[in-house]
Amino acid sequence: MSTNSIDSLLHESRRFPPSAEFAANAVAKPELYDAAKADRTNFWAEQARELLHWHKPFTQTLDWSNPPFAKWFADGELNVAYNCLDRHVLAGNGERVAIHWEGEPGDSRSVTYAELTAEVKRAANALAALGIGQGDRVAIYLPVIPEAIVAMLAVARLGAVHSVVFGGFSAESLRSRIDDANAKLVITADGGWRKGKVFPLKPAVDAALSGAATSVTNVLVVKRGENDVEWTEGRDLWWHDALAAADAEHEAQGFEAENPLYILYTSGTTGKPKGILHTSGGYLAQVAFTHKNVFDLHPATDVYWCTADVGWVTGHSYVVYGPLANGATQVMYEGTPDTPHPGRWWELIEKYKVSIFYTAPTAIRSFMKLGREIPDKFDLSSLRVLGSVGEPINPEAWIWYRDAIGGGTAPIVDTWWQTETGAIMISALPGVTSLKPGSAQTPLPGIKIDILGEDGTRVDPPQGGLLVVSEPWPAMLRGIWGDPERFKETYWSRFSTEGDYKYFAGDGAHVDQDGDIVLLGRVDDVMNVSGHRLSTQEIESALVSHPIVAEAAVVGAADETTGQAVVAFVILRSDQEKAQTAEEASTILRAHVAEQIGAIARPRQVFVVSELPKTRSGKIMRRLLQDVAEGREIGDTTTLADSSVMQIISDKLK
Ligand code: WT7
What we know:
By secondary structure, the protein is α/β, with parallel strands linked by helices. The protein contains 22 helices and 30 strands. The longest helix has 17 residues, at about 115-130.
């Protein structure tokens, strides 16, 4: 973010207090802050008792005797799927719609809680018949279809662990995730709909499982795309056959609160994605609490829609676990926002009378570019709460969101959190907080956030610093799968002292004159492209894995729509310099990155250069490359080994 926009964020003077009517009917009241302040751990214990069904009630709340390894509600037992399904049916809400699903080509299905429960019971029996039990890992590689939810909940019901891999990731990314977690089973589909076409998924699974020995014994295939698939007899099974053969009854057993629920891989500063581990009781308590209070959920009357893919953490917490634990009715949409026309999302809001809508700033900005005429054609008057997640939302986009989508009245909650935090950590509460564009504002009740300087002391407003979470929270990650050292090193080594552990989030932040938190983006080598996290090193590794590349450096450059965009600088191998034009090399390498990692990582630009700016110790100075990529005056080059390099690069690119 430029200094200019930080300044304007810090001096944002517009305020949007809740209307008296909204405040009167709001789920969250100001007393929540008082209760959490009076006794933080007891506050979470009360939430966990109130919001969840416990097979065996807990007596211990937080065990922080072995930091940074936390245990919440450790002697309690629960079944996560039972909490999301059976108990709603038993409470008489079986006929309530859980999912209004809309396929991209226009087919649709509405699934009630009773139907979803029955389907998950069958699926759990089918998985058990394939040998899946407590602790086993199951990889899920599916489009946004109801079966993705069924598969996740069936795994959870058995006390097993899912690892959902976003359907846009490549075979290579899928393979490394399957291997890292030693998954026994993969659940996929023939294909799914995207941009008016079926994109196949099964070939990536086949490729991921080919070659070297694999831990996977079976592949379950959902029929969705109706496209042809290759079949490995004895390994591959159709989902519908397996479910039809399975028993309809399945009794949910309680598992201990710290039973692992899922692994979700996310990019870090090194090339290898981290398997973020989440467990059951604390995670479910905080996602249920935040989903209910941040979005002001009235489950009997609201229709909620979160546009995230289930392959990301937003999909895990706010499509699957939060809404279903709270018995909400939600919309789920398979395809892209502009297919078959650019008003598709608004058409769905009108069709299902969506009242709570949660999406990412990058989407808002691309709609803003298309103009108000498009949403203006639809009746969006059902909307009463709007949410934003994934990256900072600039005040201009915030105001447009409120006016063009929210009818000039709907509150916007800007929610800050991460794959690692599991659930929302910083956000306004819509009936309580006076909203301010461009700021996530306030830590939620029960969450302790500090902004620290490099030296670990608290900075005073309006100083900027690094964001830390100063007390353990229920949905916190419990580790990095198979790598406790990396867990300690990445998150807990920077600011912790003996007896005082602080979680380092990797984000820069300011506190403004009112004490509101303004997020300023990552401070490490992690980019944020369309609200998705990408590692510069992972993309650099993909680039140098191509035979024409000698060296590569990647930066995240500011982009009007996607927040940041991937920009790469490569040096070709000397024998290649003549064989490829810069343009050919760029085309080849953009495609290569998409194939290695997935289309989201495809660089916006690949520049062929003859040198990279390095310090005397050989470290690439990405900051200078970022100046070039963003078309800025080049910063201080005095620490470069060869200070003329930047001039050569920028001359060449002009
Ligand atoms: C990173 C986490 C949380 C689900 C989606 C992304 C950035 C997230 C905000 C926000 C400013 C935000 C941070 C964070 N981020 N939400 N409201 N305002 N920045 O999850 O892939 O784990 O990425 O996204 O930089 O560290 P993720």
